[in-house]
Design a protein that fits this description.
This protein is mainly α and 143 residues long. It has one domain (3-142). The protein is 88% helix and 0% strand. The chain contains four helices and no strands. α1 (3-33) packs antiparallel against α2, α2 runs antiparallel to α3 and α3 runs antiparallel to α4 (113-142).
Length: 143
């Protein structure tokens, strides 16, 4: 069995889930936050983050494990870039987005917080899309 191809196939599925999710977040979910009154956003955000975690955490963990495993099976430029992108996305998410979401969860929203959330999320949207495209090209090339 070709484990490299299997890892790439599973990675592509996980990436598809994350890229779909991040585009929904970027184009629909985060912009919708700007339409809530602060007290309603506070209430909704608590439910939103808890519910979304059931989707995001397994996908991000799977992506991280797959990227690390891929490097161990075959050390090449694509796998090395993939693991670096995934590690960047983890760091960026926890260092940049977790504090912003924490502020919203405490009811501390202002005129700059929500636009900042949307602007910064373009970076994650780009990198998750780029990672999906890299894996898609890799999958097409081995098929």
């Amino acid at each position: 069995m070709d484990y490299t191809a299997l890892i790439l196939q599973i990675s592509l599925l996980v990436d598809a889930g994350l890229v779909t999710l991040i585009w929904l977040v970027q184009l629909i979910i985060y912009p919708s936050f700007t339409y809530y009154k602060p007290e309603n956003l506070f209430k909704w955000h608590q439910k939103y983050t808890t519910r979304l975690a059931f989707v995001v955490i397994p996908l991000m963990l799977s992506q991280l494990v797959l990227a690390i495993v891929a490097v161990f099976y075959e050390l090449n430029m694509v796998n090395s870039c993939s693991v670096l992108i995934v590690l960047f996305l983890w760091m960026f998410t926890f260092l940049s987005f977790a504090p912003l979401h924490h502020k919203i969860s405490e009811g501390n929203t202002n005129q700059t917080l929500l636009p900042l959330l949307i602007r910064r999320n373009w970076i994650r949207t780009f990198f998750w899309s780029f990672l999906f495209i890299i894996h898609l090209i890799g999958y097409i090339s081995i098929s």
